[in-house]
Specification:
It is built from 13 helices and 13 strands. It has 432 residues and is of the alpha/beta class.
């Protein structure tokens, strides 16, 4: 079960296979509530990503291991470009017109990343289009490795096959660009850092190809890491509740259109092409392909990536059940964390309050706790429902929500670049 060899656990099948769903009798719903849900879905993307709290600016250095002191860029959400670097960088994005790519552009803008020039690369279909950015209008260029290599840093917001074909060529040699890859292509490859900057930014030193973790893992570890430093993690059990947008725009469209078709009386049960079963008014305990051990690949990603990012043993016990739910955006996770040392809820709360990128939302008397509704569009993940677990010794249980397109993808990638500027791994071509 080593994270370095996940392929060994996959079934040798190339196609998804799902049982046929028989037509059922007419389903009864609360139409008013469901219509509100559809309205909410339709306006989900009408937000401006922001960080609602100052958790990036307030944290305790004593909670950070000496080898992983947080660079100054993680400590501040608002700063001038000169705070991060006196240099400016030629930045490239492949896939900038997709959901994650658009958020990368937004994060570069809002965090004042020192951009000298922004180049956007795409396919023949998107080449020639113009994208409005804070850095001016940018015309989408037809992708080529040679053009990408002219940049100082390239963000890949594409699928794993594209990354496997091009990422290493883009960064090869002294004159290659730094590549930060959002796909799963290199996450488990030895020698390539898998990075959540607040945890292991130091692993980027001297590297030119960096892997961004799975969104579920990144969101969960933001909450687990401060507790691990405090009490020493010994085991972890996670259950996830993942939004439709985790399957991209097609997943979002299927949820919205399917919900409308049922509410309008056009169908008793929504159609499904993206998901294993109809998602409206349903939950599906199946994300990605099933493995020989009974877990899905999505679930095993949490196991493999937690071990690698946190520097844990290859057989460190982490178990996950991943469930797709009919929400638009932001993933949720219920986590039971077992520790080597006795736990203290008050100390845990303090550690989470002071952790960068974490917002403690835990006021049950006033019905305040993490929810996708409030986590959507936020840079910080939300943590709440914190309590001592009554089934296990030395264990805490808590609930986490985070925007998977931001903390689980685009924001993480941009903070990785900031960390690399800080530690010298990312330089301008002239400076290098």
């Amino acid at each position: 079960s080593s994270f370095l060899a996940p392929k060994a656990q996959r079934k040798n099948t190339s196609k998804w296979s799902f049982p046929t769903i028989s037509k059922t009798s007419t389903m009864k719903f609360n139409s008013a509530a469901a219509l509100l849900a559809v309205g909410s879905l339709a306006t989900t993307y009408g937000f401006t990503p922001s960080s609602s709290v100052s958790s990036f600016t307030s944290h305790r250095q004593s909670l950070v291991r000496p080898s992983a002191r947080l660079p100054t860029h993680i400590q501040h959400t608002s700063r001038s470009a000169t705070t991060l670097s006196m240099s400016t960088f030629k930045v490239g994005i492949v896939g900038a017109t997709g959901a994650v790519g658009k958020e990368i552009v937004g994060c570069l803008e809002k965090r004042d990343f020192p951009v000298d020039s922004l180049r956007i690369f795409g396919s023949e279909r998107s080449a020639g289009k113009e994208v409005d950015t804070k850095f001016g209008k940018v015309k989408v260029e037809l992708f080529s490795e040679d053009a990408a290599r002219e940049c100082d840093v390239v963000f890949l917001a594409v699928d794993g096959d594209f990354s496997l074909a091009h990422a290493e060529n883009i960064c090869a040699g002294d004159d290659g660009a730094v590549v930060i890859d959002n796909s799963s292509a290199f996450r488990y490859k030895e020698g390539i850092p898998l990075v959540v900057p607040e945890i292991n930014a130091e692993t980027t030193k001297g590297k030119k190809l960096i892997a961004n973790p799975n969104c579920t893992t990144a969101i969960g570890l933001m909450a687990v890491w401060p507790l691990h430093k405090l009490f020493g993690l010994s085991k972890m059990v996670m259950s996830t509740y993942q939004a439709a947008s985790g399957a991209g725009q097609p997943g979002m469209d299927e949820l919205m259109e399917g919900t409308r078709s049922v509410l309008n009386g056009e169908r008793d049960m929504a159609e499904n092409k993206v998901f294993a079963h109809p998602l409206p008014f349903n939950v599906i305990p199946h994300i990605d392909k099933f493995q020989d051990n009974g877990y899905t690949k999505e679930e095993m990603k949490v196991t493999w990536e937690t071990r690698k990012i946190c520097g844990l043993a290859d057989d460190f016990p982490v178990s996950c059940t991943a469930v797709r739910i009919p929400t638009a955006r932001a993933h949720s996770e219920s986590i039971v964390a077992l520790f080597e040392n006795p736990v203290d809820v008050a100390a845990a709360r303090k550690a989470l309050e002071e952790a960068p990128g974490v917002k403690l939302v835990d006021d049950v008397d006033n019905m305040k706790y993490p929810m996708p509704l409030t986590a959507t569009g936020q840079y910080d993940i939300e943590v709440g429902r914190l309590r001592e677990n009554i089934a296990f010794d030395n264990a805490l249980e808590f609930f986490v929500c985070g925007d998977q397109l931001l903390r689980g993808a685009a924001l993480n990638a941009v903070i990785v670049a900031e960390a690399m500027v800080e530690n010298g791994a990312l330089q301008t071509k002239t400076a290098a």
